[in-house]
Amino acid sequence: MLFKYLPPSRIDVIKNRKLRFSSPKALNDPYEERFKLGNTEWEVGGVASKDELMKFVSLSRNPLNLLMWSHYTDSHQGYVVGFNRADPYFIGAETVRYRHLRSNFNGELLTPDKLKRFNVKETLKKFVLEKAIDWSYEEEERLFLQDVPQSITEVGVDNWGESILLNDFPAKSVACVYLGVSSSPQLKEEVICTLKQYEHEIPLYQLKMSKTMFALEASRVL
Length: 222
Known about the structure:
Layout: E1 2-6, H1 12-16, E2 18-21, E3 34-37, E4 40-43, H2 44-47, E5 56-60, H3 66-72, E6 79-83, E7 94-95, E8 97-99, H4 112-115, H5 120-128, E9 130-132, E10 140-144, E11 152-157, E12 163-168, E13 174-179, H6 185-195, E14 204-209, E15 216-220
Parallel strand pairs: 8-9, 13-14
Antiparallel strand pairs: 1-6, 2-12, 3-4, 5-10, 6-13, 7-10, 11-12, 14-15
Protein name: DUF2971 domain-containing protein
Organism: Vibrio chagasii
InterPro entries: DUF2971 (IPR021352)
């Protein structure tokens, strides 16, 4: 299963059944938008036209990570959606590799002309699937927009001038939902009402703090 951590303000994800696919520039790691080819540093936007830029959604293999809940759900106030990884929509998600050293395509000095010999999308994908070892706690999988059926809604422009793209995901792919330990009764009620609109049963879990470990425990509430 793959999980998306969300703040309470993003209840629209399960209501409208749309996920945001972002470019590396919009993420919180400065290395996301930079990579090495030969002896040269490149920016993703410098070697690909706008329609070639890597757009992806970040997912995790772990729904109970304390740091992830703190960083991505507004301090445990939000929720996590679990998706069936075997669903055709999500089956193409790719595992992020965590490393101490940055990868390099090869040792030569590459020019824009030489770059034309390479498959730009696949070359860029290789680099955006690598992150510093510091991020390994995220257990991240990335699902690329180019690898899923596209039914895109553009809802504006972000702070970097990139289009904010939402793409439909199939309702049947939703497998479960977790509510954070600090989630409000209002969010719980809204999530329950939303899940009842789906045609299949979706388990809902409430998280609580373990009394014996620094860990989260889940109890089914729906």
